[in-house]
Each structure stands twice: as C-alpha cells, then as structure tokens.
Amino acid sequence: MTDEEVKAPVPAHRRFRLRRRRKRWSDEHRLKVYTLWIMLTGLAMAWVAPILGLDVDKLSGEPTWLLLTEINGWVVPALPFWFAGMGVFTVSYVIVVRAIVAGSDYDRHLLVSGLIALALSLIGVGWTAGPMVAWLGLVAVRYPLHKVLLVSLVALPLASIRSDGTISLIVFLNVWLALTIVWANRFQVWLWKVVKAANEGRDAQARLAVTEERLRFARDMHDLVGHSLSAIAVKTELAGKLATRDAERAAAEMGEVHGLAREALREIRMAVRGYRTVELGDELRSVRSVLEAASIRCTLELPDADLPDELNTLLAWLVREGTTNVLRHSEATRCRITVGMEGDKVVLEMTNDGASVRQPNDRQGSGLAGMTERTAALGGSLTAGPVVSGGFLLRAVVPVEGIS
Which among 170, 343, 351, 352 counts the fewest CB atoms within 10 Å? Predict the structure, then answer.
C-alpha cells in the first residue's frame, strides 16, 4: 500500500457528517435502536389489535371501539375515549422505554402508565388487554419475573373483561400469547446492557493502558533523575569541602559532576523521545493480547531478518501508539500489523476496519505528532489516515542504512 492511497485531510464539515454517520451506524447505537423498536412492539400491538378487529362484540359483530359505551350513566361514542386514553398511555410508555435504554430512573412513569392501562381496562373501551400487556412488558424489565407473573394472574383476566361483564376467550388467549413480549423485552434489555458494559470495559481498558504507560514513564524518570541527582549532590558536597584544601581534586570532582549532568540529560532525552530499548517481538505479542481481549482480531506479519536496536525500538513505539489509537478512537473488529522490507527500507503498516473519527490533522493529541517526529529523526516518514478501500492505515517507512 502506497502513500498515495492515504486520503487528504478531511474538511471540517465532512468530518462533522462522518462523526454523525459513525454515531448512527455504530454497533452500540444500532443495538440501541433495535432495543427501542423491540420494546415499542407491545405499544404497537395495543394500537393495531383493535383496529384489526381482535376484540369483536359478540352481539353486533363490530369492534368494540366503534360502539357506544356508558360512562356515569351517559351513553357516548367509545372512539374518542379510546384515542384519548391511548394517547396518554403512549406518551408515558415511550418515556419509560427511553429511560430504560438510557439507564435512568423511571419508576414514577412506570406507575403512571400502569394506572392508565388499568383505567382503560376498567372503562372497557377498545381492546382493553392491549395496554395492560404492553405495560407488563415494561414491568418485566424492572422487577423479577415471579412478581410479574403474579401481577399478570390478576391483571390479565381483569383486562379481558368485556363491557357486558363477560370474558372474551379470543382476547384472553391473545393476551396470554402476547406475554412473549415480556420475555422479548427482558432479553433485549439484557443484551443491550451486556453490549454497553463491554464497550465501557473496552474504553476502561484503553484508559488503563494509558495509565500504565504513564506509571512506567514516571518510574523511569524517577530511576534516571533520582540516581543522577543523588550522585551529583554527593559529588558537589565533596567538591565544596575540598575547594579550600585541595583545589585540584575539587576541580576533578566538579568535572565528574559535569559528566554526570550531561549523562543524565542524555538519558532523560532518550526516555522522553522513546528511544529506550523496547523489544518489537515482545511488544507485538502484548499488543495482540490486548486487541484480542477487546474482541479485535489481530494478524501479524514480521520480517525474518533482525533489525537494529534503535529501529526495533522505534517500531515498537509506533505499534504501541497505533494500538492505543485503535482502542480509543475506532470501532475496529480486525487489525493487521505487517513489518517488511522494501529495498533498504523497513515498512510498518497497521490497518484496521474501523476508520478513526479523529484525524491526525485535528491536532487533538500529541501521540502521532510525537511519533512522526521520532520517525523523521531516523530519516523516515509516517502517514496516517483513512484509505480509499475503507478502514484506517498507519504507515511508517524508515531506512535501515546508518541506524545502529
């Protein structure tokens, strides 16, 4: 894969649309939409069933919601009351569903929707069991199943009572068949919570990797600076005592202090730039373990020839940085890492099928920028961005000649 295949920087307005599309079609968001629609099935059934004539008056043969109903001695059309009651129930039902998916509190709205469903059942307008069945599907998500079944044994026969005081066998059987909504809702919400927890664990794993790297760097800096400064403190104290008695020896001690300071400065620069020796093979094995733990299939291709230590370390750092970006900024399911030779140059390519929303040109982090500088210090080049064929590519080309 050549550098020309890497796309040019994406304009800001296109990045915004890309971010919205990725949010819309990510696996987590897609499952969230599925969960919402599945949980709204009970509500749809409560609306559609009477229209399809599931509740038919045994005397007239007409759906009950088209007939007249008696409320407080007044004989009035049933249709307006059915629409009014179902409208309020729908609003309350949707609020509860959204709260369930969002993980917020919904007990008050669940109680309100249950009272509305019970009121529709007692009035006897329309398919009275519909709202009650839909409501039980929500209760099953919030409370244990044995409590839901207990409520069902009381509420469902009540919801199946017709306006003339009889129980419709057809409605009763359809209501019990609709109890599958209870199990469907419970399973779908459980699946949604599992996927959400997995994604949160993936993010936590990425944060943990960053934290561990910071701790490692802090330990390295402590070892380097602590040892060097301790030696410098001892030498300078000795030189101060010898200054009045043995100037020649004091000068020698200060010369050693100067050497220690320069050595400490060199080691600190090496640590900051990431030039301390890191074994590429060990890093690749660690990276594959981390990616596979995050459900990302990882494929490795390595060269047969040994690489210089300095180049080996640089590639290991590039792989580590690329892996961090995959975990934090993409939704990849596959990652391929290849290290090969092209003439007298070593080429590292990391590709994944989850193109990062954040581009290197966004200047939102110094990771890739720092890697670019380190690669350039060895005469190489680093490119990163979405590719024409799909996915994301990080590619580094470094000459072998002149590297120890």
Answer: 343
Give the phi and the psi of residue 3 in degrees, each rounded to 5: -65, -25
Run of H or E including 249? helix 247-273
Where exactly are the structural domains of the chain? Answer: 40-178, 203-273, 280-399
- Cα R_g (the chain), whole angstroms: 35
For domain 203-273, which CATH number applies: 3.40.190.10, 1.20.5.1930, 3.40.50.720, 1.10.443.10?
A: 1.20.5.1930
Three-class secondary structure of residue 50 per DSSP: helix
Count of CA atoms in the C-beta half-sphere (13 A) of 254 = 11
The whole-angstrom separation of Cα 297 and Cα 288 is 8
Q: What is the pLDDT of residues 119-167, one digit of tens each?
A: 776 665 445 567 777 777 777 777 776 666 666 665 555 555 554 544 5
Whole-angstrom Cα distance, residue 43 to residue 64? Answer: 19
Report the residue count for the chain: 404
Scanning the structure block, which residue is given the tokens 């990045």?
15
Give the Cα separation of 56 and 49 in Å (integer): 11
pLDDT tens digit string along 381-402? 999 888 887 788 999 999 987 6
Per CATH, the homologous superfamily of domain 280-399 is Histidine kinase-like ATPase, C-terminal domain (3.30.565.10)
